[in-house]
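notes to self, project folder thing:

trying the whole complex as one job this time. last attempt i did each chain seperately and stitching them together was a nightmare. two parts in total, labels are on each line so i dont mix them up again. if this works i'll redo the older ones the same way
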Amino acid sequence: MTSVEPNNPRPQQLPALRPKRRSRGRTGWRRLWFLAPLVVYLALLFGYPLGYSVAISLENVNLQTLVSGGAKFIGLANYIGAWRGPIIWHTFFNTWEFTVASIVLQFAIGMLLAILFNQKFPLRGVLRSLILVPWLIPAVVSGAIFNWMFSSTDGVVNAVLQGLHLINSPINWLLHPESALWVIIITNVWIGIPFNMVLLYSGLQAIPKELYEAASIDGATAWTSFWKITLPNMKAVIGIVLMLGIIYTLKVFDIVMSLTQGGPANLTQLLSTWSYTLSFTNFNFGQGAAVANGLIVIALFFGVIYLWFSKRILD
Amino acid sequence: MKHSTKMSAKMSALIAGTAVTLAGLSAVGFVPARAGVRHTAAVGPKTTLTEMDWYTEPSQIRAIDSIFGSFEASHPRVKVSRYYVPGTSYLSKVLQEATAGDLPDYLMLDNPMVPDVAETGVLMPIRKLGNVNTTPFYKGPLSEVVYHKVLYGLPVGNNTIALFYNKKMLADAHITPPKTWNQLVTDAAKLTHGSVYGFGFSAASGSGNVSWQSEPFLWTDGGHLRDPESAGDKATLALFQRLVKTHGMPQAAATWTQTDVQDEFQEGRVAMVINGPWIEPELNTIKGLSYGIATIPVPKLGDTLRVPLGGETFVIPKTNTNSEKLAFSLLTKMLDNTQSAAKIGAAFGYVPSYAPAVAQVVKQDPYLKVFAKEVATARSRTKFLGSSYPKVSAIWGSAVEEVITGQMSVAEAAKTAESQVQAALGK
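result (full assembly):
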């Protein structure tokens, strides 16, 4: 008898559950109403545009059908058309190279600066605010400045390199697809460093100083402290920095438009600018949406990885 | 349970975050937000005629205001109210309003936009509103406002591009402005020395750059944007290749916008450039720069030069009979007579599309002389391609860049472009 009871606890728990369920009937629904503003907001501002974007990616939307209506449902033809041919794949790999290089460089430099500013030294506050400047400048302006700096005829980059006798004649940075893409990457890294630095810096500030004191008493070197204390304590911040960094980088548009406009010969297009070109130069809104939706899927893919990461590692 | 709620909250936040950052990329960003307050209109017994354009120069606005003013004087019960929309968002604004059925009564359109907008069926064929005498208009400019043989409006006036040359550099090299392609190649090579190049034009990607700047060469030689493998197209690509190979033109031209080209010319780093009359006021402020303007070289002497036309048009959207009739009389008053066509030409720095007004404008602004000569035989950019112009011209632009940057031979670039054009036109 005594051995049976613990194995069969249900009859005792059921009565306890019931009142809970009943309470959900009254206050539970009331609680759900508090979600309504958020749900409406998401549905209107995110659900509708996303749904619309998916809808037009399945129709032959051009200027005429956009204005007068009557776009036909054409299934996946836009996706097949948009994701076929050399330009889109070149663009895809450009986006890949651009994103990986930007994130790695921004993160590495941002981390080094965050560690630097975590030390105490004169003028620290002033310098830290100055580092934020690139973040405050509109990306179009930054693009124009870098365009000018990398100009082949009167750019300061060529002037310095020639002055140092590192090159004999000016280099056409924006002419060759690979170097042009790197100019775009460098501009984006310059813009992205403050963002990385600020978040990583706040992560560093949150680590209790006692941990470092205890480690140094135990004889840990700065290097060991970094790997054993700093990094493990910053997992959450690093995850967020990388996640946001990837989404911000995937959607970069204005820098390319002000530096190369995707040229020469479409060789520096990113998925974002190519989607824009398809929609607003070629007026092929369906294919433009098909490319943009591909970009959303890529971003969501990284989002899912982030969720997995935060669940497995952080919790 | 608790955990999974947390997950789904995170998930929705994530989806939202992704959406907010990316939604702007899809066409979504721009579809109908209603046009706004313009039709608050009829105050008292007066009729308000709404107008929309993108003009910003004080001289342009003064000319428009004065023409609207005299229209109001002769129509005491009508008020014309002008609305300005910046050029960068102009077409999308027009499309928004067209989608919402809320276009103004009297609408400016840049000439390549006319087929796009006419195709959507929102414009009024103006011959249904009254008689228009189109005989005094130049053929090229007039064809800008004709779509499928129907007349939708009238051209405001035109600009185009020509060869600007540095007088001192040409004199030092003992040459006169080149008249043929062969002369252009040899002269450009002669003028190149040190960091100075002989010739340059804007071959950067993007509208307003490579395709329209190369059209005078392409079209004069009988080529077509829609047919990159034709003889004229290939000969044009070969010309650019020769200019680069003989060092007459820098490869960097493939990264130059029209403004960059102007800078290079002003700074004395390029001796001859292709550009338009709009740079004239600024060139005149540069000390020590003495320049001339010549027509663009042609394949061989005697060929008829076909330059592309720039400049705006006015059209009448379908609204209601009364407004359409009023807009029509405003249109003819503004553009279909010598006096106001000349007034607009002078204020805008345009060659009037209304031929009888040209002499008066050129007399006042002699620098327009070469452009006036070119406009007489010029071609509307959308003449053959209509609403396919933007995508097809972009493909041609890529071919030019591939040749200038040396990524492809002339034959390869033409072949690649041909297959892209076929795909774009759905053949």
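what i see at first glance: The domain at 81-314 of chain A is CATH 1.10.3720.10 (MetI-like fold).
need to look closer tmrw
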